[in-house]
TrEMBL record:
The name this protein goes by in its record: Spermidine/putrescine import ATP-binding protein PotA
Family statement: Belongs to the ABC transporter superfamily. Spermidine/putrescine importer (TC 3.A.1.11.1) family.
Stated role: Part of the ABC transporter complex PotABCD involved in spermidine/putrescine import. Responsible for energy coupling to the transport system.
Native organism taxonomy: Bacteria, Pseudomonadati, Pseudomonadota, Alphaproteobacteria, Hyphomicrobiales
GO cellular component, one term: ATP-binding cassette (ABC) transporter complex
Start and end residues of each ABC transporter domain: 17-247
PROSITE patterns cross-referenced by the UniProt entry: ABC_TRANSPORTER_1, ABC_TRANSPORTER_2
Top EC class, one word: translocase
Gene: potA
Gene Ontology MF terms in the entry: ABC-type polyamine transporter activity; ATP binding; ATP hydrolysis activity
Record EC number: 7.6.2.11
Length: 371
């Protein structure tokens, strides 16, 4: 899973964003609890988390629509915590397109320029350029009611970028669209980000969306940042059980460290020994650990594999997903394991009750904090 090329440095108008000890309380409830993060110039940062984790509250605080209970928000080195929303020069795109139904596409996109008293000739040029960027130039004279949902969202994007904002904020803009259209617009948003070189802050609860589009992802839980990093870092090296479980699927193996010295370590689960690449944090013999093992990193064999970690089991259930099989395999030592294997190279023909061997390398899994 490759990260997209970063826009490090950003475009000429790109700005950095810093949040320091941001908090927002509603009564005694902390919607955001002492959050600090930095978004570099031209970066695409996604705030990812379940409902109620604080991601939209952070975005709306940056936009100026929510007044923080504490902390500061800065653009470059300028504090904007108490600056009114209309003075921040930020573009915003919401889940609802919020287009004016009585205005044409061109007039909708040009509205931010009109309120800024941009000259008509210059405004027409900017509108045409913005519509071309989102591939909507030929629809300039249409009304919103004549457009599909995806086309309306493109128009909303054009309206958000037409005045060259200092920052683009996007609050689940694709969640109302069907799966295929969402996937298409993800590619277009990535392309738009590269074209503009601007700083994007994106909110979603969709893990695949966050992984596919972002330079950096901040995973939120109960108003705090659980972990922040590149999509590859978060997926391959989750710090906690929550991150591993929220960001994709994972099997969790609870064991006891048997050997902690050397280039790798050994741990036991229900009397069976497994080998694990050494984690960054120090562990000692006898420590309890939790290991995260992604389903796609487990090999399925008909015969016992010559691998450091192997276990035999029986297929409890399986799904055919076209390009892959998803198996649930019951083992004596580890309980039920979820396994994903490409259809074209699956070494067995899945059948309920069939006996299989599972194997994985020491660096296929990672030790996580049990929280």
């Amino acid at each position: 899973m490759a990260d997209k090329t970063s826009n490090a440095g950003g475009g000429a108008g790109a700005h950095s964003v810093s949040i320091r000890d941001l908090s927002k309380y509603y009564g005694h409830h902390a919607a955001v609890d002492t959050v600090s993060l930095t978004v570099g110039q031209g970066e695409f940062l996604t705030l990812l988390g379940p409902s109620g984790s604080g991601k939209t509250t952070i975005l709306m605080s940056i936009a100026g629509f929510v007044q923080p209970s504490g902390g500061d928000i800065m653009i470059d080195d300028r504090v904007i915590t108490h600056l009114p929303p209309d003075k921040r020069n930020f573009g915003m795109v919401f889940q609802g397109y919020a287009l004016f139904p009585h205005l044409t596409v061109a007039d909708n996109v040009g509205f931010p320029l009109r309120v800024r008293d941009v000259a008509k000739d210059k405004a027409r040029e900017k509108v045409a350029r913005a519509l071309d960027l989102v591939q909507m130039g030929k629809f300039a004279d249409r009304m919103p009611s004549q457009l599909s949902g995806g086309q309306q969202q493109r128009v909303a994007l054009a309206r958000a970028i037409v005045f060259e904002p200092d920052l683009l904020l996007l609050d689940e803009p694709l969640s109302a669209l069907d799966k295929k259209l969402r996937a298409d617009l993800q590619w277009e948003l990535k392309s738009l980000h590269r074209s503009l070189g601007a700083t994007f802050i994106y909110v979603t609860h969709d893990q695949e969306e966050a992984l596919s589009m972002s330079d950096q992802v901040a995973i939120l839980r109960d108003g705090r940042i659980e972990q922040k990093g590149t999509p590859t870092e978060l997926y391959q090296k989750p710090a906690t059980r929550f991150v591993a479980d929220f960001l994709g699927k994972s099997n969790f193996l609870a064991g006891t460290v048997e050997r902690a010295a050397g280039d790798d370590m050994a741990y036991a689960v229900d009397g069976q020994r497994f080998v694990q690449s050494r984690p960054e944090r120090a562990l000692s013999e006898g420590d309890s650990i939790v290991v995260s093992l992604r389903p796609e990193k487990i090999e399925v064999r008909g015969d016992e594999p010559e691998m450091p970690n192997r276990v035999q089991g029986r297929i409890e259930a399986f799904n055919f997903n076209g390009s892959s099989f998803e198996l649930h395999v019951k083992t004596d030592a580890l309980g039920s394991l979820s396994v994903t294997t490409p259809t074209w190279r699956c070494a067995v023909t899945p059948e309920i009750g069939g006996t299989v061997w599972l194997g994985w390398d020491p660096d296929a899994s990672t030790v996580v904090e049990d929280r």
